[in-house]
């Protein structure tokens, strides 16, 4: 498949992680909590996540982020550890896969969303991954894994260093051999955890308001479809083999829940219409060939059943916009909006297409009246700010910065938000504030040394206000332990530069 790199990188980082704690090897059988502290888990997960993003594997779209985060947190609220931190994100990959990393980072591939037919199928996979995290399976797997994988970890680290002077081929070979060994092991020691994740995930699914049988149905359908196509199983089924036992246990568990536990009235009602739009949005935004996608959508629309048509039209509208066929995109999205005049996703999507078409005034006018109705909508505020910024006028830049400012406290970890905020401040003439936001973008997109340097440079500027200076100093103090940790692990600025991390 085209995007096989994410799994490679995850593994690489996972192995680096093994290296990071090799100073004090715990005894086999020691408790999971002793191997990695929650803080360490969070730090390693974070590093992996930022690295993913730096390499372009995270679909950073405010509408999709809002969707997957809301769905994820909803599931977590019904898990055994609702207080645990989670970060849900969509991976730019057509492979059918999902995974959890230390620290509660749960990635769902666009390809998995695409093959799911209902929201509860997506939720089933996410609930399963949430259960891996709440049951600390990763840490336990890691605990068993590390002794035997340390040589591989060292080789991998060596491979990274070796790329400085040699061609990439040697690196690839070392990676491939290491990964083969890893995959073999991974399946062996997580299979019993898989059953536990199934069992607990189905409970989460049910208590959230989804059909608990969705997990069994989805796995079975995936297995049947890939068998019918004569393809090998997708990555998710390779790590989560669909056996008769697994499916029947999932079924039994679902039935047991339904008969034993009363349904709670306040349950969430699955929103398949929204899910269908989101899966097409993920498909379009993760594609690197929008014009081919336009043709695909046109063909699929001709063959579609009436029930599928609207989501396909939405996908086509987005694909047209991405393929720079702006007039067609705007006209199609307007048609959808005519049918549902208050549809927030359509309103924002049309406004974005209008901005891309150079009609930023129409876009801003379309979104302005919504700000009062949806005061907490990050996608709406970001889209509105983008429309304002497109005007290239100073006062509009100021208005954009004002619109985004309340969001910065709430989701400052969102690089799309920070980047839009930076551009708004640039336009407004507040270069100091823009630089600070750019430093945050650098940090969250896997360029931590760059971020640190930008923050320090900011302190040299006499124009920086007292309050901003205090804030920047506090931020430097916050990031310093992370930088020191990276330096301990021999990831130096020059390495960052060599790997293309620095700008
Ligand atoms: Zn699993």
TrEMBL record:
InterPro entries: Mito/Outer_Membr_Metalloprot, Peptidase_M48, Protease_BepA, TPR-like_helical_dom_sf. One of its GO terms (biological process) is proteolysis involved in protein catabolic process. It is an enzyme of class 3 (hydrolase). It is found in: Periplasm. Its cofactor is Zn(2+). GO terms for cellular component: membrane; periplasmic space. Keywords: Hydrolase, Metal-binding, Metalloprotease, Periplasm, Protease, Signal, Zinc. Zn(2+) binds at residues 128, 132, 194. GO terms for molecular function: metalloendopeptidase activity; zinc ion binding. Residues 1-20 form the signal peptide. Binds 1 zinc ion per subunit. The keyword Chaperone does not apply. The active site is at 129, 198 (proton donor). HAMAP family: Protease_BepA. Functions as both a chaperone and a metalloprotease. Maintains the integrity of the outer membrane by promoting either the assembly or the elimination of outer membrane proteins, depending on their folding state. Belongs to the peptidase M48 family. BepA subfamily. PANTHER family: METALLOENDOPEPTIDASE OMA1 (PTHR22726), METALLOENDOPEPTIDASE OMA1, MITOCHONDRIAL (PTHR22726:SF1). This is Putative beta-barrel assembly-enhancing protease. The lineage of its organism: Bacteria, Pseudomonadati, Pseudomonadota, Gammaproteobacteria, Lysobacterales.
